[in-house]
Amino acid sequence: MERFRWRHGCEEIREKDGKKDKGEYWHWGFEFLTLCFCFGSGGQLATTPAVKARLLSAALFIAGGSDHVVLVAPYEVVEPLVKYMAPLKNLETEYPIIDPSFRKFCASHGIFSVEDFLIHDLYMLAAFAEQDISSERLKEGITQVLSIIDDMHQPWWNGMELLEDAKRNKHVLPTGIQGIDLLLGGGIHIGQLTELVGPSSSGKTQVCLQTASNVASNHMVLYIDTSNSFSPERIAYFLGKIIDVASAQAKNQILQKVMSNILCHSVFDIFAMFDVLHQLESHLRYQDAGGCQMRLLIVDSISLLISPVLGSSSTQGRALMLSAGYLLKKLAHQHNLAVLVINHTVGGEGGCSKPALGDSWKSIPHSRLFLSCVRGSNDYNALILKHPSMASGKAARFVI
Amino acid sequence: MEIWRLPISASQRGKLISAGYTSLSSLSSLSPSDLARELKVSEAEAMGILKAASHSRGAETSNASCSILDGAQSAWDMLHDEESLIHITTSSADLDNILGGGIHCKEVTEIGGVPGIGKTQLGMQIAVNVQIPHDFGGLSGKAIYIDTEGSFMVERAFQIAEACIEDMSEYNRFLRKDFQECKINMKPEDILENIFYFRICSYTEQIALINYLDKFISEHKDVKVVVVDSVTFHFRQDFDDMALRTRVLSGMALKLMNLAKKFSLAVVLLNQATIKHTEGSFQLALALGDSWSHTCTNRIVLYWNGNERYAYIDKSPSLRSASAAYSVTARGIRNSSSSCKRIKMM
Known about the structure:
The structure holds two protein chains of two kinds.
Chain A: H1 5-16, E1 36-38, H2 49-63, E2 70-72, H3 75-84, H4 100-108, H5 114-119, H6 122-131, H7 135-152, H8 159-168, E3 172-173, H9 178-183, E4 188-189, E5 193-197, H10 204-215, E6 220-225, H11 232-242, H12 248-260, E7 262-266, H13 270-285, E8 294-300, H14 302-306, H15 316-334, E9 338-343, E10 345-347, E11 353-355, H16 358-362, E12 367-373, E13 379-386, E14 395-399
Helix pairs in contact in A: 1-3, 2-3, 6-7, 10-11, 11-12, 13-15
Chain B: H1 10-18, H2 32-39, H3 43-61, E1 73-74, H4 75-84, H5 93-98, E2 108-113, H6 119-129, E3 142-147, H7 154-175, H8 188-193, E4 195-199, H9 203-219, E5 223-229, H10 233-237, H11 242-262, E6 266-278, E7 281-286, H12 289-295, E8 298-305, E9 308-315, E10 323-329, E11 332-335, H13 338-345
Parallel strand pairs in B: 2-6, 2-8, 3-4, 3-5, 5-6
Antiparallel strand pairs in B: 6-7, 8-9, 9-10, 10-11
Helix pairs in contact in B: 2-3, 6-7, 9-11
């Protein structure tokens, strides 16, 4: 089993410190070449250690399916990952069975961290443990680690539970725009990624602002703004139409309460967006059950962040785009968020415009709405391009 | 809150726990050097741990929604910020009217139109008007003028500056008749001095300059407007790879938006017009194509209507689409009036 030998190489390098050049990695027997991940020069592609480590663990996840992995990455990229893996000795405080002698046994088989354990052939490990003098204790240790690992994975769900969860948590959020609500059967789905796509000035941002103001009266909303197009003035205007209170003072109070529920964050590159999303994820994980919960995440617009990195020559941009998409979907599913993203159009063949970001992005959103402006009037058109439960091609008109 | 919830690496967490720190409160009164000694880590690392700890503590104690994310702002706060912002006037009341008071700070505004419609004039006017002192409802800022076409005429800027000062003193007399004369000690020369002019001769220079602006503006904090005249010129000349052009342009737009937000300044991009063939008819459209049209927050199209110049709001998140007439006079951009029209017709 030569798998993942590189990792021990990293440990070695970290210990020897002075040797930090890329050449080091070739010493560790990478004669197999199945999968190759290259990270840009000096690891500059990924800005923060956390992002780097996540990229790498994503790479490892994919690589897990294949037998042998070659990882070509500069030291700065690998180093944080080495730190990221929980060493076995951290478990000792809680589980005394994982004592130094057990760790020594594991280390002799190249197991330093919990992750090493996961990918090691356990039958072989158990067989080796048999031959040892203190085999009982070692086996107990192995069982202990396995039970810890068992506790860590996501629980499985059956269909009934899923249905119940869908009934309880996965509602629709009304957008407050009649035409669109009717078209989508109530509004945008919680737990799903909805994309609005359309040419310039086709009402995309307006739909987002309107939805944000409609949802904010009961829930928190996060608005990730990449084009300075978030307009609080407009939100106040939309709310003014909804709130039906006579006295100006009471109205102002409600306005303040509702508008404090809308958070806006400006980001101007994709790495900043990753940071914000990870921060949001860690916040949502520890969010209390009570109080005002976040239910809507808007990214206006995702294509503006992605288009500078999406090039024909490199695959990094594509990888970033897809991981952004999956992260958004994961957030949507795990934390019961409705995610609304804006995409642009680009000129396609024959002068007609098509959604930007290409075919690989196309599979990411659950539903896609194409918006367009009806020339010569104040009306807008919405057309379903893709929806999990509706026929595509249905259209509706709406006014803003 | 427990240590294990801290957003730090597993090894650091392990070190903290083995050193006996289990709760956040136990970390509160520690200095970085003490912690570094105890955990046998570098001081910078200890500092990072303490920072994470104090941050989590902050998030725990204040139940205000803003603590969810660093740098996020609630819409209510933003509304108040926006109300206190001063807009840059265009010197034409009608134009200001449809723009909601003038050019907005913290936003990118694109102005486009056919040749001779007055894009450069408007650009120069804005570069002058941004310097109107606070007493006169201005921003009293400085301007950066990025000239890619070589169309900035300094004599013309001088003229506009003179007219602007004349207007201000007139306004002064009108407003403070019975008070002591508030002297305007601004000269046209001062105004010209406060316009930082960059001449750009190729698109690489343009990209380099936009990258440098961040540093320049942090050194000159009172810059309140960046005018790019025009953003199009070099990108229409020598670009073969259209995909690359899109990428470069959107990267540039993001940088400009970042500047606008960070330093709360207005960015005005001037764009050329082109003819586009859509649905069997030829239409006037702004250059640089579809993907560029998404990048600007506000878009104003200038066009001729008979003999009058009109401005039309093509795209804006907060303003309704509207149009207004304006004219270019010897004194700069002004309201369109019948007298001007007559002069033009003769």
